[in-house]
Design a protein that fits this description.
Elements: E1 6-13, E2 21-28, E3 33-37, H1 44-51, E4 59-64, E5 67-68, H2 74-77, E6 81-84, H3 98-103, H4 113-116, H5 120-133, H6 149-161, E7 167-171, H7 179-196, E8 199-203, H8 207-210, E9 216-221, E10 223-229, H9 236-243
Parallel strand pairs: 3-8, 3-9, 6-7, 7-8
Antiparallel strand pairs: 1-2, 1-4, 4-5, 9-10
Helix pairs in contact: 5-6
């Protein structure tokens, strides 16, 4: 049996009296697509930062590809990880082309020029392939600053995909995308899991939008209250634990993961 692509064991972060993350554990095999949902302040973005080693947990351990993540091997392990952080409203100021932005996702991007020269055609092919995945290939020479919000988000996704990572971490990737673009995104991610055996962890706020595509949904509010697999309902008390006693569960599609129905 292969080692999990990612394994979190008893992760905690923040003050002991009110931790942001509290005793969180799970592991995922290759090709698994997991969605993470939860209220604002639940720790969704924080857990992605912990997975990439951007912040150190107060307790617990993380394994990537069967190896414990440490500050000494973080750079090497993250060569196989793509990460799309949450979209912020700050306008880009540097005059970068779309190609430049996607190239930043290549693991050799920060290498000295003489180490990159022999791989220029290989890199160009990878950049074109990533932009084609997100339907932005024709925009490769364009100035990134003058793209729409949805176009920028798709370019940022291409940057996360360009190295063809084994593990892809996405923080609300559908932000700024219209409904058709969102569906195209989820279909692409599902295809990457099925055909490339990529493991994907995606934070999203809309469970109804993602449940037809993911393999499981993790309900997060400081800790994981429930991890629902495909075909499984999320108990109503779990919804109340995450969102409070006054919320009401309404199922629009009883076939989706987590939907509660009579």
């Amino acid at each position: 049996m292969n080692s999990p692509v990612i394994c979190l064991s008893h992760i905690s972060f923040g003050p002991k009296k009110r931790p942001i993350l509290d005793d969180l554990s799970f592991s995922l095999e290759e090709g698994h697509f997991m969605g993470i949902i939860g209220p604002n302040g639940a720790g969704k973005s924080t857990i992605l930062s912990v997975m990439t080693g951007l912040i150190q947990p107060s307790q617990g351990s993380i394994e990537l590809f069967g190896t414990a993540l440490t500050r000494f091997n973080r750079h090497q392990l993250l060569k196989e990880v793509g990460y799309l952080h949450q979209l912020h409203n700050a306008e880009p100021h540097m005059p970068l082309t779309v190609r430049d932005v996607v190239a930043m996702g290549l693991s050799q991007y920060a290498s000295p020029l003489w180490q990159r020269m022999g791989k220029s055609s290989q890199h160009q092919t990878a950049i074109e392939k990533a932009l084609k995945h997100v339907d932005m290939l024709d925009f490769m020479p364009h100035d990134f600053r003058y793209l729409s919000g949805g176009q920028r988000q798709r370019v940022r996704l291409a940057r996360a995909l360009v190295r063809q990572p084994q593990l892809l971490l996405l923080d609300e990737p559908s932000a700024a995308l219209d409904s058709q673009q969102q569906q195209n995104l989820y279909l692409l991610l599902r295809q990457l899991c099925d055909e490339k055996k990529m493991t994907i962890i995606m934070v999203e706020h809309d469970i109804a939008a993602i449940t037809g595509h993911v393999d499981s949904v993790a309900c997060l509010n400081r800790s994981i209250h429930h991890h629902a697999m495909k075909g499984e309902q999320i108990p109503e008390d779990v919804w109340h634990q995450m969102y409070g006693e006054h919320m009401h569960v309404v199922a629009h599609d009883t076939s989706c993961i987590g939907c509660h129905h009579d």
